[in-house]
Specification:
The structure is a single chain. This protein is α+β, with helices and mostly antiparallel strands. It has one domain: Ubiquitin-like (UB roll) (Roll), CATH 3.10.20. It is built from two helices and three strands. The chain has a three-stranded antiparallel beta sheet with strand order 2-1-3, with helices on one face. It is flat, with a radius of gyration of 20 Å.
Length: 87
């Protein structure tokens, strides 16, 4: 009986750990830009958090960064960071 409870408790803990790890933003990327007036500003442009995985989100963020950055007359810097938006 005690052993059964111990095994069930281990299963519950394992399931909890798996659920928590599935909720992390390990595959989320965020696109930022600075300001033409203040280069130290971090302005949120977009978040890439599709369920298609790390590579998908990373590549799409990079593509967007290049497209924004390479427009004529752009005086600000665009960059991607792994993770959700942070001020």
């Amino acid at each position: 009986m005690v052993m059964e409870v111990g095994i069930k408790m281990h299963k519950v803990i394992l399931i909890g750990i798996l659920l928590i790890s599935g909720c992390s933003d390990n595959s989320t990327y965020t696109l930022y830009r600075n300001s033409a007036i203040d280069s130290s500003m971090r302005i949120h442009v977009a978040t890439f958090d599709a369920n298609d995985g790390n590579n998908y989100n990373s590549e799409n963020c990079s593509i967007a960064q290049e497209l924004f950055q390479n427009q004529n007359g752009v005086a600000v810097k665009y960059w991607c960071e792994k993770g959700s938006f942070k001020r």
